[in-house]
């Protein structure tokens, strides 16, 4: 039976469906000729990503984008999409000292283009801003994904979404079963990672309390705690990290992060204090981790390896962590996120090399294999997901326009990514 919250949110999602502005792969192409690839996009195109092999590595996830062709022996191909590009010459004669601004890149001028008077010294440069069609002021030339936002439910019928703003502070918008609140800053401090949200039963007195974890400017993890009335902030000692944190709640709250040696470390809270950070296995990783409390005494952690595949490890009780194991085939741009919608089910999400959202489901029969959820929406951050009820999942991610988008599984279908949250720009 659908809750009042689910029905109300469904209505809002339908109302906002037509407002979705996420970019699409219309008229895109791979540039670069095998075997010696040196792909580059034209002045009126935006480089979305680069690869030396067909996305998905030839196996699932299956790839549905533009034809890639043969793999590269050296170099890489560029995925180029049409852009509304603004170009200009920079440098004033006779003493030219041309340079491009931070949102521009030096480009090859089209045939017949003139920069005006000749330079006596120095040189002029041709600068283009790679603004994607339909967007305003956003450069897609950087293939580094943005920090993922976080989603949480502190009580029935309530959702909280937190993202990192352009000023490196965390901002929150909350759903109260009727409307989303305007974005508002929380607590103090500036951060280098997206947030994660959770609650620790040994810190709570009522169900309105929760904590937000993030990597500070000093590369240490911080906890912002909401006690129902105000925010407090404390540093988590003994450890510096290159990634954002992951958090598994419960009676044994556990934090995870990627250390300077690229290994994943974990720490448990015991008697109000975090234990010494210890590494998990011997694998090395290139993304922030994601974790889930699978059962009363089992925790699972996931992360993208240096080969860009997704790996997992788990621990039950006081046992040792299991060896890292690869989940299916395919390579990914983002960190994964995981939710538990049913007692014997896990749903794993990550952004593929095509910037689309991919899903893999674990049941008692094992992992079912990666499949692409959406052929329309391009994402610019790792996803974050939560399951608030049986047969219900909410997924959020930052789009190419820096807005937060929302997708919901309603028991028999996905709504598709749409912009029902308040407008706001996020890193």
**How many distinct folded domains?**
2
Helix content: under 10%
What's the mean pLDDT score? Answer: 83
The largest pleated sheet is described as: 5 strands, antiparallel
Poorly predicted spans? 1-26, 56-64, 130-143
Q: In oligomeric terms, what are we looking at? A: single chain
Report the portion of residues in β strands.
35-45%
What is the second-level CATH architecture of the largest domain?
6 Propeller
Beta strands, count? 31
Rg, Å, rounded = 23 Å
- Shape by Cα distribution: globular
Instruction: Indicate the structural class.
Output: mainly beta
The CATH class of the largest domain is Mainly Beta
How would you sum up this structure, described in words?
- Helices cover 3% and strands 35% of the residues.
- The longest helix is centred in the first third of the chain and has 13 residues, at 4-16.
- It has 427 residues and is mainly beta.
- Strand 15 (246-248) and strand 16 form a beta hairpin.
- It has 2 domains: 4-21 and 146-409, Fucose-specific lectin (Neuraminidase); 89-129, no CATH class.
- The chain has one helix at 4-16; strands at 29-31, 45-51, 77-82, 86-90, 104-106, 125-129, 150-152, 159-164, 170-175, 184-185, 196-198, 210-215, 221-226, 231-236, 246-248, 254-258, 264-270, 273-274, 278-279, 290-295, 298-304, 310-316, 325-326, 337-342, 345-351, 357-363, 366-367, 371-372, 384-389, 392-398, 404-409.
């Amino acid at each position: 039976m659908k809750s009042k919250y689910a029905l109300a949110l469904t209505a809002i999602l339908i109302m906002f469906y037509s407002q979705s502005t996420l970019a699409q792969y219309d008229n895109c192409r791979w540039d670069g000729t095998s075997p010696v690839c040196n792909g580059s996009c034209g002045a009126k195109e935006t480089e979305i990503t680069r690869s030396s092999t067909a996305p998905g590595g030839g196996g699932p996830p299956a790839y549905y984008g533009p034809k890639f062709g043969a793999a590269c022996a050296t170099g890489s191909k560029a995925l180029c999409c049409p852009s509304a590009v603004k170009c200009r010459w920079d440098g004033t004669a006779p003493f030219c000292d041309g340079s491009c601004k931070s949102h521009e890149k030096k480009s090859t001028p089209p045939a017949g283009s003139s920069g005006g008077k000749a330079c006596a010294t120095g040189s002029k440069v041709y600068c283009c801003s790679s603004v994607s069609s339909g967007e305003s002021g956003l450069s897609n030339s950087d293939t580094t994904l943005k920090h993922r936002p976080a989603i949480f439910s502190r009580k029935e019928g309530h959702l909280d979404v937190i993202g990192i703003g352009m000023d490196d502070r965390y901002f929150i918008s909350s759903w109260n079963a009727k409307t989303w609140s305007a974005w508002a800053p929380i607590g103090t401090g500036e951060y280098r990672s997206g947030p994660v949200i959770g609650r620790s039963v040994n810190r709570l007195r009522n169900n309105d309390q929760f904590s937000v974890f993030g990597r500070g400017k000093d590369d240490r993890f911080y906890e912002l705690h909401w006690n129902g009335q105000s925010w407090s902030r404390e540093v988590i000692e003994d450890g510096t990290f290159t990634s954002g944190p992951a958090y598994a709640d419960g009676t044994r709250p556990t934090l995870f992060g990627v250390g300077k040696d690229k290994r994943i470390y974990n720490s448990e809270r015991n008697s109000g204090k975090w234990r010494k950070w210890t590494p998990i296995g011997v694998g090395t990783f290139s993304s922030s981790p994601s974790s889930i409390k699978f059962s009363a005494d089992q925790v699972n952690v996931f992360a993208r390896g240096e080969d860009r595949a997704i790996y997992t490890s788990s621990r039950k009780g006081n046992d040792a962590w299991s060896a890292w194991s690869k989940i299916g085939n395919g390579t990914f741009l983002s960190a994964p996120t995981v939710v538990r919608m049913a007692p014997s089910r896990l749903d794993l999400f990550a952004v593929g090399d095509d910037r689309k959202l991919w899903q893999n489901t674990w049941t008692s029969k094992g992992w079912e294999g990666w499949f692409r959820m959406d052929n329309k929406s391009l994402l610019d951050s790792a996803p974050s997901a939560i399951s608030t009820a049986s047969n219900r999942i909410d997924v959020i991610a930052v789009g190419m326009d820096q807005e937060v988008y929302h997708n919901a599984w309603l028991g028999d279908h996905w709504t598709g990514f749409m912009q029902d949250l308040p407008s706001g720009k996020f890193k």
